[in-house]
Design brief:
The complex is a heterodimer of chains A (228) and B (627). The longest helix of chain A has 16 residues. In chain A, helix 3 links the parallel strand 3 and strand 4. In chain A, helix 2 runs parallel beside helix 3 and helix 6 crosses helix 8. Chain A contains 8 helices and 11 strands. In chain A, the strands form 3 sheets. A 5-stranded parallel β-sheet of chain A has the order 2-1-3-4-5, with helices on both faces. The radius of gyration of chain A is 20 Å and the shape is elongated. With 228 residues, chain A is α/β, with parallel strands linked by helices. Chain B is an alpha+beta fold and 627 residues long. In chain B, the strands form 4 sheets. A 5-stranded mixed β-sheet of chain B has the order 9-11-12-14-13. In chain B, strands 3, 4, 5 and 7 form a 4-stranded antiparallel β-sheet that branches. Chain B has a 3-stranded antiparallel β-sheet with strand order 1-2-6. In chain B, helix 5 runs antiparallel to helix 6 and helix 15 packs antiparallel against helix 17. Chain B is elongated. Classes of the chains: A alpha/beta (228), B alpha+beta (627). Chains A and B meet through helix 1 and helix 8 of A and helix 11, helix 12, helix 13, strand 9 and helix 15 of B.
Chain lengths: 228, 627
Amino acid sequence: MYHILVVDDDKEIRSSLQIYLEEEGYRVTLCADGQQALSVVLEQKVHLILLDIMMPVMDGFETARRIRKFSAVPILFLTAKTQSMDMIMGLNAGADDYITKPFEPLEVMARVRSNLRRYTKLGAFHEPEAIVVGGLVIDDSSKTVTVDGDLVRLTPLEYNMLLFLAKHKGQVFTIQQIHNQVWKEPFTGNEKKVVVHISHLREKIEINPREPRYLKAVWGLGYKMENL
Amino acid sequence: MKLKYKETLQKWGLYGKLYIYLIILLACALYLLRMEYRFGLEPFSKSYINSKSFERQLQKDIDTLSYFMDEYLTGPMNSSYVEYIESYWHPSNFKFEIIGKHLVTGNVILINNTGATASTARVSSQWPMFYQYRDGYSIHTNLSFDVEEKWSKFESPWLDLTSVTIYIYGFQVNDVYGQSYNEYDNAVVFSYFALMLFLLFAGLLITIDFSWQYHTSRPLPWDNLYLEETICLFILALLTIVYFTRGRSWLDIILVAGISPFPVSLLLFSFVRQRMYGHINYSDNCWLFSRLRMDWQHQKTYVVGSLLLYALILLLGNWGFTQLSWPKYLYFILSLALLQLLFYSFRVRLDRSKLMMQIASVSVGETYTKINYRTSYYRKASALLEPLSDQIQHLVTESLKAERLKVDLITNVSHDLKTPLTSIITYIRLLERDGELSPRSAEYVKVLSDKSLHLKSLTEDLLEAARITSGSESISPSRLDFAEMILQANGEFALRFEDAQLDLISNFEKPHLYAWIDGAKTWRILSNLYSNVAKHSLPGTRVYVDAGIEDDHVWLCIKNTSRLQLNIPAEELMERFVQGDPSRSSGGNGLGLTIARELASLQDGKLELTILGDLFMVRVELPRTEN
């Protein structure tokens, strides 16, 4: 049973998260500030931490920084701060993921699952020809795609598109380029099917399709598979 | 019209004027060269002020000529060219005056009753001053030599001074040469003036160019050039008076006018400009006399000092410049005055551009720094800026502080709102999931869920709107394909449009519309506009999205038919929290358009709304290139 630490100064948020996490079958410990959390992490085996940023006594950034000195446990920030500067600060402090308040509980659960899998199955065996992007694994020999170990069902077009983008991860392709590579028919210049397929694909592989982790849009240039 | 005129002037006007001066200068130099060639002089051999070399050459020519003339003109002086000989007798000094119509040169020989002779060296009548030299008047030639010295050389002593016969021989009437000499003299003088004016104007241009970078709030520098034109007019008037009083031929007047086309053309130009483009803001110190009056008020020591200097020069007279004839000497003094005016003008203009620089820096909120001024007038003006700058500084800090407080307040409030909202959403989800609710309770929970999500988007939008309007948002534009972005938006919103039963029709003028925009911010504009369309359009209608390039911007035009009657003006629709639907039941919060407009103006673009009945039209313009 995985042990999850929830650190938030708001009692209601703590207990509601506890309800969801316990239903998922995790053991949950609640802390009201960073100082408490730090002592729990030092004493007990913790598999994942949900950490608020604005807290009394010791804030989330400082807590994460101290935990990172001795532990590689996944840290998920829960915060009301939404500016990109805050996100960068959070990730620099050693966070693995970032969830903005107010959040959807189901999304939190999905992210917790994803991060736990990545943490516990780190270094898992993949087929040599498999293409790996973070928790996304594409095995071209068996034509299967898994996200954090879960099998994802894709249509042939979606699969081809994902394979093409994953093969060139980090590279930005225009809609026309993706169209030419995947559909292999002339481009009329005003087609939305590429983008529609990309959003379908996101629905399947991303936890929150509105804030994609893998398949990102570069506005005005095209789309790319993030190089994770 | 006026703007275009100013632009044209800025493009070629000032330099065009400089070129005109340059051409005049070259023409004068050519004229001078031609004269020198005619007299066989080395080109530009000597100073233009002192034309001694020319005189020497002239003398040589006359000598040669006189050799032949001697044959015919020896004998008692009775040439019709010399009208009157007046002599003053004195034992030791012999003086006489030849008054004639023309410039003459030659030898004088004296023979007394014993038959002894004495001869002068070659003498020539002195070049007259302009005011002496008039038609019908004569040239006064003073000749004198030491009789005793000359007489001692005679074989027999000089006895009877009263019975001396004066023979003048070898006198050549230099009419042709005189005329040419006159022209040469003019050429020298005018070239000199052209040079002076060229320098003056070039200097002005340099000082203007120096201050050109601070031109944003100042009037056109061209308008400040009237000082120079006034000087030109002054010189023109002076020359005309001189020539008329000399009573020279019309040829000379034409020559003057021909050599001075710049004052004439400039005055004409100024006149035409004033007629065509209305009154131009003349600064008071443009005109010479008001300028002098102002100088007297502000620069007393300077003016008094200058006047003393000129008085001194005039008192000293022609001592140091014995080679200069009187007109040239006057020209010399005038030139000196011009030069001084030129330097004075430099000082003032330099100070003025410094002041302009200071005002510019103060106006953008920089702190006042002391600069050293040359003239007390501008020093005083600059000192006035200091309290003003302090005040501006104070106000700017205050308002920045207030703005920051406002943004901080909104940020904090929305952060504080988010925490309870998180609890509300998670507990509503728990209620929904438990499924133990009566149908009516489930309905209530549904309302709670919808409203909590609305509240969520509202707090997020509020935060963003506050951030953008406070100006703390920075943009990082790059060259992006606007058409690609619209295609992306079309795709991203395809599902939502389908759900809303809308038919999207999109047309581009060109397949690629490159623009200088911030990707994330422009996406926010597009997504706000598209979600507005998805939220507020009448189901079953068409949505038109057109884009293209126009002048220096790319444009996007979205047309949709509103679901509800739009009975408020477009401007009001733009204001925060106002929605087309007064009951606010359509799920938006009214901030979308405000944010989109602020983001567009942040990128030097604009967003316009048009409402035609139920047709709702948004037009976005974004820059194509940097700046």
